[in-house]
Amino acid sequence: MLSRELLKILPQPYFYYSSDQLVSAGVLPNVDRKTNDTPWSWNVIRPRFFDGFHRSIAALAAADNLLLVEHIVEFKRWLDDLVLLLSPYRVMYIGVHCPVEEMERREIARGDRYIGEAKSHLEDGIHTWSEYDLTVNTFTATPQENAKTILKALPAYQHGQSIFKQLSKSKIN
């Protein structure tokens, strides 16, 4: 909902992009989420899927597209990959927060998530890999309010001053 509200008020056309769109479009084969280490196993396919997703973000950016990417950066190595791939581009890295109880309620309401998945992301440390350029809370503010907060902060990142640039420089040094 936040992404949709933001797309309505952005001053230029942005492409909305998420891994969920690829899953919904049927890009993934019928993966086996219960058995590991077979060609059909999620633990085998998942790393390649997300490596390709990350590279596709960079490919779309390289074609001069403005992107609004919705993505849960589940692992520190994913952040490292994204920083490497996206450091040539202007990035505003936004953390989206809400209480665990609200995440669990939303998982149940959506019906397409494993219950406890969001909590496990928090336990794995998803918000600890780095700082964000901006954080919003989807429990204490409406999607419209959060979209306006992001829009107001956006000009500061038009010149590429973001946590991604800082992280990229620290990896070079």
Question: What does this protein structure show overall?
Answer:
- A two-stranded parallel sheet has the order 1-2.
- The radius of gyration is 17 Å and the shape is globular.
- It is mainly alpha-helical and 173 residues long.
- It has helices at 2-9, 19-24, 42-62, 76-86, 100-110, 117-124, 143-153, 163-172; strands spanning 15-18, 67-70, 94-97, 134-137.
- It contains eight helices and four strands, in the order H-E-H-H-E-H-E-H-H-E-H-H.
- The chain has one domain (2-172): Rossmann fold (3-Layer(aba) Sandwich).
Q: Report strand order across the widest sheet.
A: 1-2
Helix content: 40-55%
Element order: H for helix, E for strand: HEHHEHEHHEHH
Sheet/helix structural class: mainly alpha
Using the 3D structure, state the CATH architecture: 3-Layer(aba) Sandwich
- Taken from the alpha-carbon principal axes, the silhouette is globular
Instruction: Tell me the number of helical segments per DSSP (H or I, 4 or more residues long).
Output: 8
Reported by name, the CATH topology is: Rossmann fold
Number of strands: 4
> In percent terms, what proportion of residues is strand?
5-15%
Assigned CATH superfamily: P-loop containing nucleotide triphosphate hydrolases
- Tell me the name of the CATH class: Alpha Beta
Number of domains: 1
Mean pLDDT: 91
Which value, in Å, is the CA radius of gyration? 17 Å
